[in-house]
C-alpha cells in the first residue's frame, strides 16, 4: 500500500471530498489529488496536518506502524463500554461458582476484555499489512 492509497482510503472512509480535505489543511484539491495518486509526496507539515485531520499518526499514513490510531483507541473504549453495559444489564447477574461477582472481579473482567480487544486489533493490522511494508 502506498502513501497515496492510504490517504485516499482515509478520506473515502469518512465520505469526505478532496475539496473538503484540501480546504481543511490549506492546500488545493489538485495538490491533494496528486498526493493520492502518488504523483507527489506531501511535505512533513502537510503530512502532519493530514494525520491530525484523519486522527492517525504520520507513521500510520506512511505504513510504518502497527500501533493503534486514536480512532481505533476510541473504538475499543466504545466497544468495551457497550459490552460491559450489556453484561451489567443482562437478565441474570454476573456470577462465578454460583456467587455474584464483586467489583474487583468486574474490574478484572473489564481489563481482560480491553487487552483482548487491543490484541485483536493489532493482530488484524499485522495480518492485513502486506509483507513489503512490514519492518524487518
Low-confidence stretches: 132-136
Going by helix content, strand content and strand pairing, the class is mainly alpha
Domains, number: 2
Residue share in helix: 55-70%
SSE order, as H and E? HHHHHHEEH
Nearest-integer average pLDDT: 82
Helical segment tally? 7
How many angstroms does the end-to-end distance come to? Answer: 17 Å
Short characterization:
The chain has 136 residues and is mostly helical. The protein contains 7 helices and 2 strands; from the N terminus they run ααααααββα. The protein has 2 domains: 3-62, 434 Repressor (Amino-terminal Domain) (Orthogonal Bundle); 71-133.
List the helices and strands and how they pair.
Elements lengths: L2 H11 L4 H8 L3 H8 L7 H10 L4 H5 L7 H19 L6 E2 L2 E2 L2 H26 L8
Antiparallel strand pairs: 1-2
Helix pairs in contact: 2-3, 6-7
Description:
The chain has helices at 3-13, 18-25, 29-36, 44-53, 58-62, 70-88, 103-128, and strands spanning 95-96, 99-100. It is mainly α and 136 residues long. It folds into two domains: 3-62, 434 Repressor (Amino-terminal Domain) (Orthogonal Bundle), CATH 1.10.260.40; 71-133. Strands 1-2 form a two-stranded antiparallel ribbon. Helix 2 (18-25) packs across helix 3 (29-36) and helix 6 packs antiparallel against helix 7 (103-128). It starts with a helix and ends in an 8-residue tail after the last helix.
Amino acid at each position: 500500500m502506498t502513501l497515496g492509497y492510504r490517504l485516499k482510503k482515509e478520506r473515502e472512509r469518512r465520505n469526505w471530498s478532496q475539496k473538503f480535505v484540501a480546504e481543511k489543511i490549506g492546500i488545493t484539491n489538485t495538490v491533494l489529488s496528486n498526493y493520492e495518486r502518488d504523483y507527489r509526496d506531501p511535505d512533513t507539515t502537510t503530512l502532519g496536518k493530514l494525520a491530525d485531520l484523519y486522527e492517525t499518526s504520520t507513521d500510520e499514513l506512511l505504513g510504518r506502524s502497527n500501533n493503534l490510531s486514536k480512532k481505533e483507541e476510541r473504538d475499543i473504549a466504545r466497544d468495551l463500554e457497550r459490552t460491559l453495559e450489556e453484561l451489567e444489564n443482562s437478565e441474570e447477574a454476573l456470577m462465578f461458582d454460583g456467587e455474584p461477582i464483586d467489583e474487583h472481579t468486574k474490574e478484572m473482567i473489564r481489563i481482560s476484555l480491553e487487552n483482548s480487544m487491543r490484541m485483536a486489533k493489532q493482530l488484524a493490522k499485522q495480518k492485513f499489512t502486506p509483507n513489503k511494508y512490514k519492518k524487518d
